[in-house]
């Protein structure tokens, strides 16, 4: 009985530690910004994919949820140091909330190269749905599609490829250990 309690405690600590480190990585990636209006380009989507792919769906989504809670409470973790409830009501709120299902889906990047690539690309594209729909309320649908999706296609391809390469390298390294 004592062994099971210790094992659960270690698992809970690992879950919490990964979520905390993941939220910190996400906050740091938000500060790597290419200023664009109304949606800045950041490295956040790469980190969101990696949180899910390396941590699994539950841990990846927990890290994102923790990051969102930190920002909502006023910590300057969003792009450009933005924080507070107002940031979660602004033009980028749909993208921020889209990180949750994206991280969860990326956590299912199992199997061979083609399946992993498809899951990561789908997860990356998934976050644009709430992002563009929310942004459309501020700038209209046509402009939201251009400013919140089309301009991000090259970066999406590159960041998805980087996430895939990182995932495969990490799994290969862990497999040899």
From TrEMBL:
<feature type="transmembrane region" description="Helical">
    <location>
        <begin position="118"/>
        <end position="139"/>
    </location>
</feature>
<dbReference type="GO" id="GO:0015225">
    <property type="term" value="F:biotin transmembrane transporter activity"/>
</dbReference>
<dbReference type="Pfam" id="PF02632">
    <property type="entry name" value="BioY"/>
</dbReference>
<keyword id="KW-0812">Transmembrane</keyword>
<keyword id="KW-0732">Signal</keyword>
<keyword id="KW-0472">Membrane</keyword>
<feature type="transmembrane region" description="Helical">
    <location>
        <begin position="145"/>
        <end position="167"/>
    </location>
</feature>
<keyword id="KW-1003">Cell membrane</keyword>
<keyword id="KW-0813">Transport</keyword>
<feature type="signal peptide">
    <location>
        <begin position="1"/>
        <end position="30"/>
    </location>
</feature>
<protein>
    <recommendedName>
        <fullName>Biotin transporter</fullName>
    </recommendedName>
</protein>
<comment type="similarity">
    <text>Belongs to the BioY family.</text>
</comment>
<dbReference type="InterPro" id="IPR003784">
    <property type="entry name" value="BioY"/>
</dbReference>
<keyword id="KW-1133">Transmembrane helix</keyword>
<dbReference type="GO" id="GO:0005886">
    <property type="term" value="C:plasma membrane"/>
</dbReference>
């Amino acid at each position: 009985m004592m062994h099971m309690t210790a094992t659960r405690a270690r698992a809970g600590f690992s879950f919490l530690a990964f979520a905390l480190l993941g939220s910190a990585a996400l906050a740091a990636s938000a500060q790597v910004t290419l200023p664009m209006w109304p949606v800045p380009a950041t490295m956040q989507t790469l980190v969101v994919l990696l949180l899910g792919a390396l941590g699994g769906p539950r841990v990846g989504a927990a890290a994102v949820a923790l990051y969102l809670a930190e920002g909502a409470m006023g910590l300057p973790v969003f792009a450009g140091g933005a924080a507070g409830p107002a940031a979660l009501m602004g033009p980028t709120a749909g993208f921020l909330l889209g990180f949750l299902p994206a991280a969860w889906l990326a956590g299912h990047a199992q199997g061979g190269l083609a399946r992993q690539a498809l899951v990561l690309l789908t997860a990356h594209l998934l976050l644009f749905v709430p992002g563009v729909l929310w942004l459309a309320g501020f700038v209209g649908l046509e402009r939201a599609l251009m400013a919140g999706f089309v301009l991000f296609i090259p970066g999406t391809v590159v960041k998805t490829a980087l996430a895939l390469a990182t995932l495969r390298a990490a799994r290969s390294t862990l497999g040899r250990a």
